[in-house]
Amino acid sequence: MSSHCRRSGFFSMLALLAAFWPGMASAVVDDHSPKRTLRICSDPNNLPFSNQRQEGFENKIGDLIAHELNAEVEYTWWAQRRGFIRNTLKSHRCDLVLGVPSNFGPALTTTPYYRSSYVFVYRLDSGLNIRSFNDPTLHDVRIGVQIVGDDFANTPPAHALTSRKIIDNVVGYTVYGDYSKENPPARIIDAVVAGDIDIAVVWGPLAGYFAKNQAVPLAVVPVSPPADRSLPFVFDIAMGVRHGDKRLRTELERIIERRSKEIEAILDEYGVPRIGTRLSSRNGRSGWKSVISSRH
Predict the structure, then answer these.
(1) What kind of fold does domain 116-232 have according to CATH?
(2) Which pLDDT tens digit goes with each residue over 153-186?
(3) Considering the entire predicted model, what is its pTM?
């Protein structure tokens, strides 16, 4: 992921290569062994990824990992904004962060447990059929794009639009948002439903979850091309531990390999769109799990 996206709070986006070390103890501990503590740092207000009520898919995957480790989860809640890793993982407040890019430098990352993409989101009744940044229609519609700061050009979709001179019809929605409200990043999807914008370019897991819970049917379509010059739009999502904590990383990778079906089921439940999903180096699938959704 670009350095812009790594700072954007999408710690909820990542990918893993299984590294099984001979002779290391199994990740599963006998149920009668003393419980250990799995310390996870998460955002308390950021569905579909996590919240303090533990309703997000990262919370569910954390529970799955804890069960496999015969551990109890202990959360440290911290808003996923600039300084999140510095104030959590690096300061030893926790040992695990879910949902980081697989090439995320500040942490030692596992193999990916899902792969997703930025997506176009628009109402099915809009008559739009946009699938590419090169579609000339983008010059004539109101576009919502996720931004990090105030420059409107700091995420890959924002750069892609700017490079095509699509500027005047673009509206920025901060990934941080008003933290006093539930799930602040969801405002960009609300704007599509309300008709404030015609189309949004959104990180896939966020779009898939909120799209499927709307009364108005929405299309969720992966952006094309999958990369634009040096800017990728598709990312492998992994788990991050502190540099040097190779033992925990190996345990996590074994769990990702062994419980891949359960992880996939959790992602499906939350409407997380995936592309070229591969949960380990030995288990690969291709294709896009798309979403065209309405609330039933």
Answers:
(1) D-Maltodextrin-Binding Protein; domain 2 (3.40.190)
(2) 478 999 899 999 999 999 999 887 778 888 888 9
(3) 0.81
Which segments of the chain does DSSP mark as H helices, in order?
Answer: 3-6, 57-68, 84-87, 156-163, 187-194, 204-211, 246-258, 260-269
Instruction: Determine what percent of the chain falls in helix, strand and coil, rounding each to the nearest 5.
Output: 25, 30, 45
* The CATH number of domain 3-115+234-286, selected from 3.30.70.20, 3.40.50.2300, 3.40.190.10, 3.30.110.40: 3.40.190.10
Q: Which residue has the tokens 């299984």?
A: 18
Beta bridge partners of residue 120, listed in sequence order = 201, 221
191-216 pLDDT tens trace: 999 999 999 999 999 999 999 889 89
Q: Which residues contact 62 (CB under 8 A, 6 or more apart)?
A: 38, 40, 42, 73, 96, 98
